[in-house]
Automatic annotation (TrEMBL):
Keywords: Cell membrane, Membrane, Transmembrane, Transmembrane helix, Transport. PROSITE patterns: MFS. This is MFS family major facilitator transporter, multidrug cation symporter MdtG. GO terms for cellular component: plasma membrane. The lineage of its organism: Bacteria, Bacillati, Bacillota, Bacilli, Lactobacillales. It holds the Pfam family Sugar_tr.
Length: 412
């Protein structure tokens, strides 16, 4: 089995294995870079001015949202350029751009400068999707499933450990220094990708791709189901990200402004990812046996029940338990939606549908960040959790109404 720590002499590895080793490290660092900043970004915004509670919530939401808005808009463009000029070029664009932009975030002194850099960060996104596409095309077909599985562990591991690393770095050094160190790591990824990744690029005919994009929904058996599932991806992600802009501020309030706040916020931000990693395979296997409708229903109902009390807790420890439980619902919802998308899409259109799914997920992140800031400004932190539960309830009712095949059949 090929895994990054096992073989360190990259020159002796076959080309596809060398690509995998380098891109595993790149995806790990990219996962860390994006997730380690999230728990304390609102605390950083707080340092950039004298804001009251409501203004701070709005600025925090805007700072989070702008990156995802840009990702949602430009993802199809970067996909077209990758098809025309190769995935490696996109890897270099993304890693170098992220290194510069994230590093520069450590030197800002005004909130609008930070928002501008977060906008540019969205333009630089795309390392992980292009790494996945490169591995899928450059790896022998007999090994591609294993290779993609290993690559996925890189991003997931980085995404899980990132908030904890970020919280520790911010506590030991400073929030500013965390941005600078992250930029330095991404610069290393740029050089590793430049010298360590090989791509035998062969562009696909533009005419075929254009024809597919123009008639995308017409080529699927049930367009309404695809649209509802894409909408569901947006709502689920919106619910997750509505909490992100306020989580460190909420933790600070629960800890009465004292103690290792950034570390606690980092741990709480990481907990849903840990439970998702544990629960997703088991819930997926259960869904294969009993039907995806039941898994989807469980995921929505469990999330609704778990979100409501999060705004009522008086202890950071209880908040951590509830956040861990939310990861179980994510383990039911996201994989089930993706499985249903794959089953309802012709094989030649799977890549296009999943690129749109990525855009809807980014759009959900943007809306969640903005609405989280607005709702917390109007109704307080507990209002955000109630708003999320209400959004998921509406989404579930729409699914049961518009996709009759997903209504669970309880007969045995």
């Amino acid at each position: 089995m090929v895994f990054l720590p096992v073989k360190l002499n990259l020159k002796k590895l076959p080309e596809w294995q060398r690509n995998l080793a380098v891109l595993w490290l790149g995806c790990f660092v990219a996962g860390v870079g994006f997730s380690e900043i999230a728990p304390f970004l609102s605390l950083y915004v707080e340092q950039l001015g004298n804001f009251d509670k409501s203004t701070l919530s709005l600025y925090s939401g805007l700072t989070y949202a702008v990156t995802f808005f840009v990702v949602a808009v430009v993802s199809p463009l970067w996909g077209k350029l990758a098809d025309r000029h190769g995935r490696k070029l996109m890897l270099l664009r993304s890693s170098l751009g992220l290194a510069i932009v994230i590093g520069a975030c450590g030197f800002v002194h005004q909130v609008w400068t930070l928002i501008l850099l977060r906008f540019l960060q969205g333009l630089c996104a795309g390392y992980i999707p292009n790494a996945t596409a490169l591995i899928a095309t450059e790896t022998p077909k007999a090994k591609s499933g294993t290779a993609l599985g290993i690559l996925t562990t890189g991003y997931v591991s980085g995404n899980l450990i990132g908030p904890i690393i970020g919280g520790v770095l911010a506590q030991v050094f400073s929030i500013r220094m965390t941005f600078v160190l992250t930029g330095g790591l991404l610069l290393i990824v740029f050089f590793l990708s430049w010298f360590g990744v090989h791509e035998d690029f062969k562009p696909e005919p533009v005419t075929v791709k254009t024809r597919q994009q123009q008639s995308l929904l017409r080529q699927v058996a049930d367009p309404r189901t695809i649209i509802v599932l894409l909408f569901s991806t947006m709502i689920i992600q919106m619910g997750n990200n509505s909490i992100t802009p306020i989580i460190s501020l909420y933790v600070k309030e629960l800890m009465h402004g004292s103690g290792p706040i950034t570390i606690a916020a980092g741990v709480i931000a990481a907990l849903p990812g840990i439970s998702t990693l544990i629960s997703a395979p088991r819930l997926g296997a259960w869904g294969d046996q009993h039907g995806p409708g039941k898994v989807l229903l469980f995921g929505f109902l469990f999330a609704i029940v778990m979100y409501i009390p999060q705004g009522l807790v008086a202890s950071v420890w209880l908040l951590g338990v509830l956040r861990f439980m939310i990861g179980i619902s994510d383990g039911a919802l996201f994989p089930t939606v993706q499985t249903l998308l794959a089953k309802g899409t012709p094989q030649n259109l799977t890549g296009s549908i999943f690129s749109w799914n990525q855009s809807f997920q980014a759009l959900g992140s943007m809306l969640g960040s903005l609405l989280g800031g607005v709702v917390s400004n109007r109704f307080g932190y507990n209002g955000v959790f109630g708003f999320t539960a209400l959004s998921l309830t509406i989404n579930l009712l729409l699914i049961l109404w518009l996709i009759p095949t997903l209504r669970p059949k309880w007969q045995h």
